[in-house]
Every structure is written in C-alpha cells, then in structure tokens.
Amino acid sequence: MDFGSLINNLMNQMAFFHLGTGNYIMIAVALFFLWLAIKKGFEPLLLIPISFGMLLVNIYPDIMYSPEESSNGTGGLLWYFFTLDEWSILPSLIFMGVGAMTDFGPLIANPISFLMGAAAQFGIYAAYFLAILLGFNGAEAAAISIIGGADGPTSLFLCSKLGQTQIMGPIAVAAYSYMALVPIIQPPVMKLLTTEKERKIKMEQLRPVSKLEKILFPIVVTVAVCLILPSTAPLVGMLMLGNLFRECGVVKQLTETASNAMMYIVVILLGTSVGATTSAEAFLNVTTLKIVFLGLVAFIFGTAAGVVLGKVLCKVTGGKINPLIGSAGVSAVPMAARVSQKVGSEADPTNFLLMHAMGPNVAGVIGTAVAAGAFMAVFGV
C-alpha cells in the first residue's frame, strides 16, 4: 500500500469527516453538562458519567452498536452496559445501594411523611394523561410519566418492563438530568406556593427510633408492598434488602460493599450507558422534545403537589409542619431533602429541616416504585 493510500485511510477514519450538525449540537450539550457538574457542582456523580457517555457516542457512534450492527460482530462497549439497563439489573442494584445508604428513621418517626411522599406522585399521573393527549399510547405514556418521580432507576425499570426500549434513551436522560437539576427546578416552585412565614416554621425534633423498629421496617414494607404489587419486588425488595443490611448490624461488610464499591461501579456503568443513548439521530427529534417537556411538567407538578399537601398539613397541625418538606416527596434522594433545607435556611438561617425532609424523601422512593408497579399491573406485566 502506497503512502497516499495510508494517508487516505487515516483521513477517512477521523470523526471530523463523518459527524453531522446534530452530533456537534449534542457534543455542545455534553460539554455544557460537564460544566454544570464540574464548575457548578450539580450532582457530578450523575452528570459526569452521563455527559461523558453523550460525548463518546456522538464522536464514535459505533460504541453503542449492537453485535448485529457492528462490522466485526462484537458490538460496542457501551451497548453491553446499556443491555444491563434493559434487563433491569443495574436499576435494581442501584436500589440496593440506596437502601444501604438510607436512614428510614425520619420516616418511621414521622409516619405522616408517607402522605407527602404519596402526594408528590401526583406529577406522575398528571404527566400520564398529558402524554396521552400528546399522542403517546398507554404504555409509552406510563413509561414517560414515571420521570415525575425524579427516580432514574425506576424510569429505566418501568420502560424495560413495558417494552418501550425505543424511547428508553430520552426517558433515561430526562429522568437523570432532572434529578441532577433539582436545585434549579424546585426552589422557584416552592417559593411560589409558600409564604415567608411558612418557610420560617421550625419543626420539633423527631423522636428517637429504636433499632428494632429500623430492623422491622424493611421486612414489613417488603411483605406489605410485594403482596399487593408483586411486580415491584425487584425494586422495593432490593431497596429494603440494602436497608436491612444497614440496620441489622451483623453484616457490616455487605453494607459497606452495597453502599460504596458496588454502588459507585453501578453508577459508572449506568451513567455512561444512559448518556450513550443520546446520539443525534435518536435524540434530536420531536418525540424526544415531547418526552423532555413531559418530564419537566411531571417534576414540577410532583413538587407542587407535595408542597400543597404540606400546606394543608401545616394548617391541620396548627403550624407544626413546614410545607417546604413536602417538595422532598419526589424520590431524588437526598438531593430534594437538601433543597428543602436550603430554601428553609434562606428564610431563617437557624432553621434545620434536613432530617424532617428526609421522611417524605425516602417515602417518595417507595411511592415511585409503587406507582411503577401499579402501571405494570394495569398493563398486565
């Protein structure tokens, strides 16, 4: 082969000559997300792997090719990662890690938190009916609407179970993006629906929760929820198993593995594979824009419903509940609880709402999984 042919082959391999305008748009979006994660600190554990997967797939699309699509029949690296998403393996493992990291004590100490966690799921059902109006079929609408729970793993899980893998990429990116952007999206809604006086309300210290209560909680929840909606077992079961590891006190090694090494490995695999679903061809279309819009609507409605119920409970209890903690009913743990704390401390620097907000926050995780199970039951999965 002569020198000219070698140069020609080299030039043909360069991405510059194969990328379209859409690819460059998505590369710019990926760089913007990286800037938000690194410079602004918006949930870097999520945004960095997602945005880097987005960057990779728009430079080298083959990295997401299936074995049938690839020239050598082996498939791209991130396709194998994403297959674990489609099989519901990574979402279930994420739930186990979340359970091992989460203290359900605030929820046990203040059971009324369940109501605010349930209210925040209103966004899911509002988005479901809006999606139907926008032309999506029932299963597609259900898969899209679960974004309103601000729970990426549940979004992936339900999308896979309902067989809507053709829209899994946009749904996953919307869900994880909104999870990461909680500090931007929620505060305006919270401030709009509450008065300064309400935001300044200080709540009484939560009662101590015994070790026995903490051990029984994951067992009781698993039995109760899975008997009613058996299809939630992969999510609720893994969440509660991780929590039982944490609370039983006799499997420290399993707790540490689930909440640290395993959790972070799964986040890397899931994040990069989710980001890699955003090729220009798959992402830059009207359907994707509708999904992103519906996800935002669901998230805003869920936040608003939690705050509104918080206001109702504030009145019922004679001002003992700060309505801001209702916004944490979306299941972005612990980001939404931190936002409740931040907005409350802006009104009164001495106000400490974090532990109170964790009650609705972890209730929201359970609530979103239950909502997913309800959709699977309705559609016969």
Report on the structure:
With 381 residues, this protein is mainly α. 71% of the residues lie in helices and 0% in strands. The protein has 20 helices and no strands. The model has no long low-confidence stretch (mean pLDDT 89).
Task: Record keyword descriptors for this entry.
single chain, 381 residues, mainly alpha, 20 helices
Task: Note the topology.
Blueprint: H1 3-13, H2 21-38, H3 44-59, H4 77-86, H5 89-101, H6 105-109, H7 113-119, H8 122-133, H9 138-145, H10 152-161, H11 168-180, H12 182-193, H13 196-199, H14 211-228, H15 233-248, H16 252-275, H17 280-283, H18 286-316, H19 335-347, H20 354-378
Order of helices and strands: HHHHHHHHHHHHHHHHHHHH
Estimate the strand proportion.
under 5%
Provide a count of the helices. 20
Judged by helices, strands and strand pairing, the structural class is mainly alpha
